[in-house]
Every structure is written in structure tokens, then in C-alpha cells.
Amino acid sequence: MVAERLPLHEIADDELAPSRSLSESSQRFWLLLLLFVAMLISYAHRSALSVAVGARSSSMSADLQLSEAGIGLLLSGFFWIYSFMQLPAGWLVDRFGVRRAYSLGFLFWSLTSALTGFVNSFATLLGIRIALGAGQAISFPASSRAVANWFPHRERGTVTAVYLTGVRLGTALISLVGAFFLARYSWKTFFIVIGLLPLIWLLPWRIFLSRWEPTASRANIDGKQISFWSSLALLKRRSVFGIFLGFFAYDYAWFVFITWLPRYLTKERGFTDSEMAIYSAAPFLLMSAIIIASGLLSDWLVRSGREERLVRKVFIIIGLAVGCLIVPAGIVADKMTAVWLLTISLCGLGICSPNTWTLTQAVCHKKIVGSVSGIQNFGGNIGGVLAPAITGFIVHTTNSFALALGLVGVVLVIGMLAYWFLIYEKVGIEQEA
Fold first, then answer.
1. How would you classify the pairing of strands 428-429 and 2-3?
2. Cβ atoms of 374 and 86 closer than 8 Å
């Protein structure tokens, strides 16, 4: 069974010695590097299909006879199982450990990415995309549990911010490398190379964590590990439901930005393609800098003696409030004013970003951080599935983005309320009878 509170002395006594040792060693920053590289590889693999079907030098679309509708289906297929695999992936991390769970997930999704180079039909490619999503479901729960295990609470914001930059850099890197590679080699070779080459990461990952995370952890020996069904029941806890609902709101806004911003700038505001490229890319670069700054500042406040949960929540509330500037961006007359409002709004999400994950680590007992992180990302991906479709429907019906962007503001306010009023108690575990 799951309990809402766990005494602080019990939490301290229950930690594994290897976890404490690494958190006190400078070697933990090698772990941070490994987490960053893994996230970069994850998003490079995730974005590779967009690059391969979009590059003019690639024959993938012609070879597989892919229509625009088919490409859209392939791109969305990744999220079908990815979203629902978050919960079991988080439980697997908590049950079998970060090293083993992340290793298997990484191996599976990398080989799946390589297999893309051998497909010869739309149906096979769709199956590959779905399998890729299943494998990558492990990345966020495992990263979050690793931070909870092996980094002091005063560093969580910075550490999380650093590995989250791999999300943006991985997407940018595959676009750059992919365009260069596809101009010289076939798309089949492209997928085989990017799928197999990153497997090198597994060697330092397994060697490094073999020292710090025992193969059979005491958590599994002492019988306090919760079952998968008990991990699902965590969603009934007030704090966990607040994390789920709050991250749904965050990701709803985030997915509106990444899926509709270019179209909004050209259709609604009349920017040229070259202007759109600049004004849709620059806000994300600025957001990356804000994410790092937010992690550093929130950690500084925690080190200064402020209560961690309160610090993380305040940063999230401020960030979501700033994000609400997306509402006036949809109704102002001047197009450059709209761009600035959208940029500041996106930076607000950057303030939230590292603190949404570190708040989960601060609220939850370490043994369930993976499970709750999976629940969190499940909520976010529900927002990710709904946001593009609802936005498209509203724009099609009203022939304007104003109402769609206004709805984002409403969702963000709901997220603010969820984070502030629902998340206040520690979530722990009790030994099952």
C-alpha cells in the first residue's frame, strides 16, 4: 500500500550507502554528462524521421510513397504508446534500478532506430515508430530517479536543467548532421549509422553505475518495493494528482508552441519563410538559457536554507504565470509585439521546466520517483496529444489563433492552481503486509 507521508528520519535511514557516496563525490558530474548525452541521443533518434522525410536530398518519401497525411501519422505514431508506457517505465526503473532499466530501454530504442534503415513499407515504418516510442518511454523516469538517487537536493535544479538541454540540442544536432549526411548517403545508411553508433554510450554507463548501484539493491531485498498496481494507485494521492495535472498544463502549452508556432507566424501574422525561421527558432534558444538560469537560481535559494518544495513551486507558478502572455500575443495588432509576447511566454515555460521535475523529486520518496515521474510525463503527453489537435480544430473553425491561444492561458491557470493547492504533502511508501 502507499502512504501520503513518510517520516524524514525514515527516509534518511532508508537510503542506500552507494547513493550517499556518489552524491558526495565529484564523480557525480560524470553521471550528469551521461544523462545529458543519453537525452541528446534520445531526441536525435526521435527527430530523425522528420529530417529524413524533410530533406530535399533524401528519397525516403519517394521510396516508401509517403503522403503528407502518412507522414503526419508516422510522426504522431511515436506518441501512441510512448504516452501510456510512461507508467510501466517508471515502475520498471524503481523496481529494477536505473542502470538496468535505462540500459535495456536505450538498447531497444537504438536498435529500433537502426532497423528503420531496413523498412520497405509504410506499415513496417509505422510499427518501428511505435516501438521507438515504447523504448524511449524510459528516458525521463530514469533520468529523474538518477537525479534523486545521486545528487544533493541543492543541485537538483541545475542538474535537471543541464540534462534537459539535451532535448533541444539533440533536435538541433540531428537536423544539422542529418542534412549533411543525407546529401551524401542514402536515408537507409543514415538510420543504420545513427542507430548503432550511439550504442557506445552503454559501455561507460554500465561501467560507471555498476560501482554505485548494486545489481540486487537492498530496496528489493527488504520487501518495501511497491508493486506495479500500487504504483498506479499513486495517482489517487493528492500530491501525485497535482503533479499529473500541473504537468499536463505545462506540456499542453509546450506542444502548442512546438507544433503550431511556425504556422502561426506565417498564417496569422504574415511573416515570410525566412522571417518565420528566425522568429520560431530564437525563442527556443533563449528558453534554453532561461532553463539553466532557473535551475541555478532555484538551487541557490535551496542552498541558502529555503524550503525546497516551496522554492520549486514558486518558480513553477511564476513561470506558468509568465506563460499566460501567450493570451495577449493572440490578440495584439502589431506582429512584432506578438513575437515578443510569445518569446517571453516561452521563457516562462523555461522557468518552470527544471523545477517541474525537481519538485517531483522533492515531494516523493526516492523509491517511487521513477513511478511518479512516469505519471508526470504521462499527464504531459496527454496534453501533448490533445494540444495540437484542439488548436487545429479551433483555428479551422474560427479562422484565427486568438481563441486557441486564449485556451492555453486557461489551461496554464489550471496548472498553477494544481501545483499550488494540491502539492504539499510528502509521498512515501509503506511496507506491504
1. antiparallel
2. yes
Answer yes or no: is pLDDT of 220 > 80: no
Is 221 a domain residue?
Answer: no
Integer-rounded Cα radius of gyration of the chain: 21
pLDDT at site 1: 41
Residues 375 and 291 both lie in one domain: yes
> Positive or negative, the Cα torsion across 359, 79, 289, 324?
negative
Compare 432 and 152 and report the one with higher pLDDT.
152
Classify residue 67 as exposed, middle or buried by CB count within 10 Å of its CB (0-12, 13-18, 19+). Answer: exposed
Looking at 216, 243, 273, which one is the last position of a domain? Answer: 216
| 267 and 389 within one domain | yes
In angstroms, rounded to a whole number, what is the distance separating the alpha carbons of residues 401 and 392? 9
Same domain, 241 and 186: no
Residue 270, classed as helix, strand or coil, is: coil
Give the C-alpha separation, 342 to 325, whole Å: 7
Asked whether 429 and 368 are in contact (CB, 8 A), the reply is yes
Measured in whole angstroms, the distance separating CA 191 from the mean position of its chain's CA atoms is 23
Q: Is residue 367 a contact partner of residue 96, using CB atoms and an 8 Å limit?
A: no
pTM: 0.78
- The span from the CA of 134 to the CA of 146, in Å, is 20
Together in a domain, 236 and 168 = no
